[in-house]
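Renewal narrative, Specific Aim 1. Our central claim is that a sequence can be written position by position from structural information alone. The example that follows is taken directly from our test logs and has not been curated for this report. It begins with the structure tokens describing the chain, in the order in which they were read.
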């Protein structure tokens, strides 16, 4: 079967996934760990509190869940905004980039059959690609005792 037009600019491929990065960098999950299931439902059997997500994943050499290394199967529950905040700081401090457009100044805003991927000027950085100046120190960094 012919694949659909799923062309995405290279810059967006290069942007790391905030949750994968958070799991490895902050939670010290094994290198290469990636999430396969992100559940932020506030209803149903696997419900989580509003604004939280339950994230499950593993290391898989092929990128497929069925080929995962079962010893790396891990899950965590996090506040979505906390991960976004952490990623924002990380993108700014480590790369000097806006975390939404990853330095491209363009924000993805949909895909259409005729138009392909569509982008608009990034609303977070105003198209500069640079981090906004709202990067604040985390409480652990400002605590003096
Ligand atoms: Zn931006």
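The sequence written for that structure reads:
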């Amino acid at each position: 079967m012919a694949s659909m037009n799923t062309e995405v600019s290279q810059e967006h491929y290069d942007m790391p996934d905030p949750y994968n990065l958070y799991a490895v960098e902050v939670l010290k999950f094994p290198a290469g760990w990636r999430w396969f299931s992100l559940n932020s439902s506030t209803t149903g059997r696997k419900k989580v509190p509003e604004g939280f997500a339950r994230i499950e994943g593993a290391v898989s050499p092929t990128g497929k869940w069925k080929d995962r290394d079962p010893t790396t199967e891990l899950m965590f529950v996090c506040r979505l905004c906390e991960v976004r905040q952490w990623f924002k700081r990380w993108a700014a401090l480590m790369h000097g980039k806006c975390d939404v457009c990853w330095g491209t100044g363009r924000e993805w805003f949909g895909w259409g059959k005729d138009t392909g991927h569509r982008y608009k000027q990034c609303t977070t950085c105003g198209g500069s690609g640079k981090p906004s100046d709202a990067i604040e120190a985390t409480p652990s960094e400002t605590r003096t005792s």
